[in-house]
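ok here's the first one, seq then struct tokens
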Amino acid sequence: MHLTDILAHFLFYCSEGKRLKRAMVMLVIQLCLLLLSFRVSFASSTKSSVKFTCAGTKAKEADDLRKCVAKDLLLGWLLVINKTSVRLDEVRKNATVMAENAKKLRKEGSAALANATEVLSELSKNSEEALKVRKIINDINDTIAWANETERNLSEASNVTQEVERLTADGYGAVSRTVWHFTGDRYGDGYLKYGRAREMVEAIKPKQLECHKEVNVSKTLSDYAEKLNDFKMNLTEWKTGMLDKIQIAYNTTQNNMTTCLAVFTNDQSRVEQVMSAVRSALDRLVVSVKKVDAFLLQREKAQENITTANGSMKTMTTSMFDSLKQNGAALCDMLRRHEVLREKVQKMKEKSANASRNVGESIKKAGILRESVTATGARVQTAVDNIKALPQFAGFFSLNELPNSGNVTLAVEGMKKAGDALEHAVQRSGNANFSISKVDVDLANEDKELEEINNNLKKRLEEIDVGIDITTSDGCNGKLLNKIGTSTKEFL
């Protein structure tokens, strides 16, 4: 139905008094049908199923214009196939390099995981540091899993050489077989490559016309194919547009009675093979590019996870070794002070031992002396008692008037004082012995505590593979701190 018929129907409805709304609805329906039929007609014109009689013109007998058109069309096909092949090969090479990068990331991740696991084994199970390390380990495991999957995807994307060669060979083969109708040259596997196939196309030589001035189909196709170099280009859109360009170029040249050739119109499998090769290669390209883009998108995050993990482990390990250095320095200082104290105490013990021996001898002598004094005092007291027992006659002197009577009294008192002094000396000697024994006990306890601290530090050093024996403060400063510093550098 033509547009005039639609308008006539519209006026008819209005003249019959029909509702305007119904008339408008009918008008819209008819217009839609018209547009639909137009689109179907247009789509049909873009299909490759063109059936024209080219006056039975054979390729070898074609005039210059037809040869120029055929040559230009075939060059355009070659350029599109080659551009697609080159782009896919570039992606393949990138995928190969990126697969190696994925392996490298996985290796770095595995090293970081081993480092984090080792640090975790040194931490208290429920400590804050242990929780942080577990979080880091989970992130590293995710990164390694991603690297494994990415490597597989990229390996698949890079393993397309044979497939690309097969697809392009189909396209180049279609071109080469078409050229044979013009030149009669035989072709083999070598003609399934871009360079050799192009030589064959260039061998189509019109007698007089300069083809580049007559047609530009190849330029149209080539210009659009070059858009594939734009990495921001949507590949699906490019594929659709490229296939449309190929079909339009074919229809434009082969729907024209002055440019068509039976070699094209009688066997449309050639253009279909070209389009199939381009379509399949592009489909493969889309898949490969998506895998490469996925890697590029996640690579920085994966590398950041590994770098962060290594940094965190380095910071935590440095902090652990710094703490160990501080504890080691404290132990060395404690050992130094203990050595000074032990030296002083040793001198005290020597003096105490001498004093103890002297006291012992003094006690022994005091005992003998006390016995002597006691015996002497007893004899003196007996003599005095005997004298007092004598009868006192008139005219005789009293006891107090005896010669040297004062000396006798003083002797008795002296004997008493000597006995008291001896008792006090013996008591002081006992106290001295008790003090010396107490000092010995304190020293023994301090030795035991220091030994326990030394053993704990030694065990800790052995856990981090810093084996060293500490016996003196000089050895502590000269060995422990240097050994810890060296081990820190090696560990980091």
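and now the second one, same deal
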Amino acid sequence: MNMPRKELYHHYQLEIETLSPVSIGCKSQLTSRGEYFLTGNKTHFIDQDGISEILYQNLTEEDKKEYLATVLNQGVDFNFTDFFKNKGISLEQIPISRSLSFIGDATLVNKNRLLKLHIKSGADENQNNSAYFPGSSLKGMIRTAMVYVHLKSHPELVSKFADKINNWSQIDKYELSKEWKVLEDSIIGKEANQLRIADTQNISDTDMAVYQVRREPLYFTESDSELDWLEECVDKGHKIFGALTYVQKNTKELACINFVPNILLGLNEWMTDMLDFEILEIEKSNMPKKEIVLAQLKSLIESSLQNNEYAAIARLGSGKTFMFNTILLLLEKGLRERILMTVLKTDSIKTRILCSHEKAPLKGWIKLNLRKL
């Protein structure tokens, strides 16, 4: 008679410290055409039920038609606050559901820019619900780090992966992603299933801010048009708590003793290599203000080198870009250049998303700390 397997659960408290603004996006976004407005260093989210009441009570039928026609005309810059002032409605009368700090160019007040919202609790991801960091995002980041460290010590697996790509007549980024997923599952499938990371605690609005961000080409030309938008972020300098559990499948399984500490050692190794690679890429570029970016990246490397098995730095919220960068980091230069030239030359791999804040442009960086419970 087979005895049932005994499972042991190893619980850890996960502390996440934001080293820069961090945003985990969702499908929800707002426009400046009646959903939010800026005043100096504040972003105000408009109560939609309340604004409908204001429109109904204070505007004539012609005013309402003008408002709707302007809002629906996406090609026209629309100064929401000026429109209402001209109709005799003060800013104080506009109903606000919530307000967050704004870090960016205050002259954006009359520009049509999207505001991308951070993922929220609740099925509808309503802007009034609380932000959090999904456990799936944290686990995906850790999974990629574990795969990278394994492949780095098993070059024969990298060679096999590279041979398959070299045999393709044309490199397709979707096929590349699919092959990488197959490789990941073959390496870390079992261990990943034994690792469970819960969604973090809800994050208070006092820890949130709206940042102006931009997509910055590594190789800027005069023909490049500026592309920027706003993002709701967890602001830098805050601590958010979550939980990590490792499921030991049987009492004879000794690997679990080092498994969790090795996660953070692996994260530090992956991130240090990634930062070295990133610094080389940016040093070759003509990105505006690249010296500020380089100084921040080098500071992150110093931080990673000072960490131990219970602390690590990591980049959260840029899954696809970091997946491709991880692939490139493992491959030989010839194949790396072929991928860059054929697949990713117009893709996000040749740009970086940065905050418009001059002194602190990086976003997405966190420090993880683990404590055994």
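notes on #2: The chain has ten helices and 13 strands. Residues 256-284 form the longest helix (29 residues).
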